[in-house]
Design goal:
Elements lengths: L1 H9 L4 H19 L9 E5 L3 H15 L4 E5 L7 H11 L4 E4 L5 H10 L2 E5 L13 H10 L5 E5 L21 E5 L11 H4 L2 E5 L5 H4 L5 E3 L4 H4 L14 E5 L6 H13 L4 E7 H7 L7 E5 L12 H4 L6 E4 L7 H12 L4 E4 L2 H6 L12 E4 L3 H8 L3 H6 L1 H12 L2 E4 L4 E4 L5 E4 L11 H15 L7 H27 L2 H5 L2 H9 L2
Parallel strand pairs: 1-2, 1-4, 2-3, 4-5, 5-6, 6-7, 8-17, 9-10, 9-12, 10-11, 12-13, 13-14, 14-15
Antiparallel strand pairs: 15-16, 16-17
Length: 509
């Protein structure tokens, strides 16, 4: 939103105009609700000190023009920004608007709030971070507002909430309606902030479309299962549904390879070859007899080496998935490099494949085909060269930058999941439950991705649609496992064993 405001000003639409339009949008909602609320006590607008307060002042001016008495309460003192102060001066000079400052008797403020027909929160905007806590005066007023019968409206988002993460101060404003500007903010779709927004109304405040097209905008997406799962012909052949190569596993993490291979088979591919060390293959081969195996040499620590991989990569596979439980060594880094340069059409880089890649991310510029990276927040941080906390705070933005810069698809795993495409588009998808917060869940998802990509080698489904479908199927399988075993007891094996049940459900429509 900061970038949109700045680029709008450069395009001839000033921040002042955007502020006026924002205030008008809030006032319009009040006008729509006038017949349903008692406005004898007027409208009260709680304001902070920055531009969110300016939106509130503009709303006050518009509401006052409707003939409704307006009280503005400055909970953080006088405005600290120029354009907000300009609107504040207009408010001070407008008959019919009363202004209260923090030094006013709190009991008088409570009296105003108790008689108000509508209370509007314009205290903090998108920059607020809950860890710093709400100021005492704001907290006391918000706590009092909870007990009033007034219609409650939040300006842009409820004060006390984090616009990125959805985290909230315990006393965050609880709204009946939130009028948000230009686009809903990411955190507004995540609990607990989601539960405090009430009905969300997205207002067009005049940001030029040319400015919007230059920024990564997050849109909610849903899976089109009918497009990626088709009824199979009676004379179908295993090669119709793709050949998958899985390069993964190590002596310490052989189960990761097993989970990925089994998930890929459950999700629709025709053939799979697991390339791993002889120790891994001997250990798990009996659990996945449907797979073919390609033994790779390994070092003294049980990690695979790159010998033999280049020849394997020329064997006509449709999809390669690499990384699950593989470990990070100079040799596994070379394996990832060889995969990226290969002619295999689809490459899924997961877990230690991502960690190996982060040592030399410029390899992506030499990559061929469709690349899908599947980082969680810490792995995303390594890829982007930032701290884990920075990446976690804005996963969608870092995923989008990574996707655009290197021409790859980035599935930033978490709550919610973000699917960033090379064209800059970002899909947001909520899927699954806390049963996925266990080891092996990522391996399962990597396998599902490989299976669905392979099964769609002859369809017109886009990579973004396939990734969305894979995430949704994984989440649905997790929901089925949770319902059977609880989110405490269900593990990644239960999720894999529920993939077929999830498919039955989605195929029935």
């Amino acid at each position: 939103m900061k970038e949109l405001e700045n680029s709008s000003e450069a395009a001839g639409v000033s921040k002042s105009v955007l502020m006026e339009n924002a205030g008008a949008a809030v006032a319009m909602l009040v006008a729509e609700k006038m017949g349903y609320i008692d406005l004898e006590g007027g409208a009260t607008i709680l304001c902070g000190e920055k531009n969110n307060a300016g939106d509130g002042f503009c709303a006050a001016l518009n509401i006052n023009e409707m003939g409704i008495p307006v009280t503005v309460i400055l909970l953080c003192g006088e405005p600290a920004t120029g354009i907000a102060y300009d609107r504040y001066e207009q408010v001070l000079n407008t008959p019919g608007i009363t202004v209260f400052l923090p030094h006013n008797d709190i009991s008088s403020i409570f009296s105003v709030l108790s008689h108000s027909g509508v209370i509007i929160d314009a205290v903090f905007g998108t920059g607020f971070k809950p860890e710093r806590g709400l100021p005492e005066t704001v907290r006391i007023c918000f706590d009092y507002v909870k007990h009033t019968t007034a219609l409650k409206i939040a300006v842009d988002l409820p004060s006390g909430g984090d616009a990125l993460t959805g985290e909230c101060d315990v006393n965050t404003f609880k709204a009946d309606y939130t009028v948000t500007f230009a686009f809903p903010k990411t955190g507004m779709g995540i609990s607990p902030l989601q539960t405090l927004c009430g009905e969300i109304i997205t207002a067009d405040i005049g940001v030029p479309k040319s400015c919007i097209s230059k920024l990564p905008i997050v849109d909610d997406v849903s899976p089109d299962f009918k497009k990626i799962f088709h009824k199979r012909k009676i004379d179908s052949y295993k090669y119709d549904f793709g050949r998958v190569l899985c390069i993964m596993g190590s002596s310490r993490m052989s189960g990761a390879a097993q989970k990925a291979v089994k998930s890929a088979f459950r999700s629709g591919c025709g053939l799979i070859t697991l390339a791993s060390s002889k120790e891994v293959i001997d250990r798990i081969g009996g659990h996945i007899p449907q797979s073919m195996f390609y033994p790779l040499s390994s070092d003294k620590n049980g990690f695979i080496t790159s010998a033999g991989v280049p020849v394997l990569l020329k064997s006509g596979y449709d999809v390669v998935a690499v990384g699950c439980g593989m470990g990070v060594t100079a040799e596994t880094q070379k394996v990832v490099s060889d995969i990226l340069k290969s002619d295999i059409p689809v490459k899924i880089i997961d877990a230690d494949g991502i960690n190996a890649l982060s040592e030399n991310i410029e390899l992506l510029k030499e990559a061929k085909g469709t690349i899908c990276l599947t980082p969680h927040a810490a792995e995303l941080a390594r890829l982007c060269g930032v701290t884990a906390s920075e990446a976690a705070a804005d996963r969608s933005l870092f995923a989008a930058k990574l996707a655009r810069e290197y021409g790859v698809y980035v599935l930033a795993k978490g709550v919610p999941n973000f699917i960033a495409s090379p064209d800059g588009s970002i899909g947001r998808l909520f899927a699954g439950n806390p049963a996925l917060a266990k080891g092996g869940s990522g391996d399962c998802l990597a396998g599902i991705l490989a299976g669905i990509f392979a099964g769609n080698k002859k369809t017109d489904a886009t990579a973004a649609e396939i990734i969305t479908g894979a995430v949704a199927l994984h989440g649905l399988a997790a929901d089925i496992a949770r319902d059977k075993f609880t989110e405490i007891s269900a593990d990644s094996g239960d999720v894999i064993d529920s993939i077929h049940l999830a498919l039955i459900k989605v195929l029935k429509g």
